[in-house]
Structure formats: C-alpha cells, structure tokens
Amino acid sequence: MEEVTDGPATRFARSVTDWQPNNWWRLEARAWERTLSVRRALAYFSPADVWKDLAREPEGAPGGGCLGVFIPIGALTLPVLGMLALFGWVFRPDRTASVLMVGIMALIAALLVTPGLVSNLRRRELVDASSARLLGWLHLIPSTIAFLIGTAAFAAGKADVPLALLLIAGDVATGVVHLVMFRRPGDVNAARWTRNMARLKTAMEAVPAAERERVSADLRAAFDELEKRAVVSPDQIERARDRPLGMLGMGMAPRPDLTGSFDAS
C-alpha cells in the first residue's frame, strides 16, 4: 500500500510548533479521524482537555435524531408518571383508580428499556454496573409503589382493569433484572479499567484492515515529520514508534489517575 504522506495526523504534526504531552492524544485523535468508535473508546482514557478531540462527531455526520433522545427519556419518566397517576387514588379512594392507563405506561417503559437490557446482558464486560443498577432502581421503585397502590385499589374494588397490574409487575421485573444481573464490582477502578479496555479492544477489532493500515501509515508519516522538524526529542519519537496501534496517547501521556496495563493484546 502506498504510504500516506498527508493524512490528518501528518498535517497536525506539520502544524504544531510547541509540542505538549497531550498532543500525542491529539495526534492519535486525528489519525483515527474516520473511526468514531475507536476515538470514543480512547476518550475514556484521555485527559479532560483532549476528550472533545476524541469524542467529537466526524465532519458532516448526521445528527442522532429525535428518537434517540425520546426513548431514554420515556423509559425513565413513564414509571414515575404512572406512580404519580395512581397516587391520586390514595387521596381520593372513592374514585376508580386508572390501573389500565398506568399499566400501559409501565409496559411501554419496559419495552423501551428491554432492547438495551438484552444488548447489555450479551456484553456485560462493557457495561457500567452502577449506571445499569441506577436504571434498575428507577424502574423498580416507582413501579413497585404503583403496583402496591393498584393492588390496594383492586382490594377495595376500585381498580378499572385489575389485570393491568400484571403490566406494572412486568416493569418491576425489569428493574429487578438490572439489579440482579449487574452486581456492583468490589474494585470499582479496576472494573472501570477492564471495561474500558474491553471497549477499546472491541472497537479496534471492528476496524477493517485497510483502515488500520491507513492509520498506521499516517502515524508513521507524522512521526517522521516531528523528527524532521525536531519538535519532539528523538527518544520520544522512538517510544512513540514502539507503541501498539491504539495505545499512543496512553503510553506517551497517560492520565495520572488511571492505572493498569497498557498491553493492547
């Protein structure tokens, strides 16, 4: 394959005059310009001031759309709204409790969260257990309260559709699954490191061979440019050349608060 001599990393190396340690991260971000999944995986290890270079969307990328916003909002708010709706019966027990409406809301909330739950169960090593458990509590607590109120209304003969309690129970079960399947790790920092490394490995393995070679060639040309311009010391250039693909920033400018093995294998 023809060597890349004017890729984004090479252009960055050509433009910088005052080299700072975090520029290794910026160089790597530009080399992976076309591969957002790798840049986002690297961002978990990067210093705060270069995170935006790694996590930004590629130029001209389409927006995520409204659906991607409304789904998580609905999954989180519907159980709470259902609970509040049934609270009205607590203060006015002479009225009929709208168990059917709340059951439908609970069903929708459970359906919205189920695809993500199934996906997370298939790749638990990439899931933040704390976030998953928080989501579980946000379903379990309001839906359990709604279920208890609905059951009381049923016992008093004031539930419009008693069978809808099963729908509310389904969302309760959704919360329980999150809490049971995603246990809090004993060493949170070690678990975070392992999870982020697994995320990076997964992203790297998905990159086509041609794109990996393009990135490697761009970085080689960038190192040559830095060496030619004497912007970086020769020993640093040699260290950078020895870094595995995807481990440049971590090896050359690691975050002081992160510890772990930089073995990319």
Written description of the protein model:
It is a single chain. It is built from 12 helices and no strands. With 265 residues, it is mainly α. The radius of gyration is 26 Å and the shape is rod-shaped. The two termini are 25 Å apart. The C terminus is likely disordered.
In a nutshell, what does this entry contain?
This protein has 265 residues and is mainly alpha-helical. The protein has helices at residues 8-15, 23-31, 36-43, 51-55, 67-91, 99-122, 129-155, 165-181, 188-205, 209-229, 234-242, 248-252.
* Number of helical stretches of at least 4 residues: 12
Secondary structure category: mainly alpha
Strand % is under 5%
Question: What characterizes the major β-sheet?
Answer: none
Question: Radius of gyration from the CA trace?
Answer: 26 Å
Number of strand elements: 0
Task: Report the mean per-residue pLDDT as an integer.
Answer: 84
- The outline comes out as rod-shaped
Q: How much helix is in the residues?
A: 55-70%
Uncertain ranges: 60-64, 261-265
> Separation of termini?
25 Å
Helix/strand order, N-terminal first: HHHHHHHHHHHH
Task: Describe this protein with a few key phrases.
mainly alpha, 0% strand, 12 helices, 265 residues
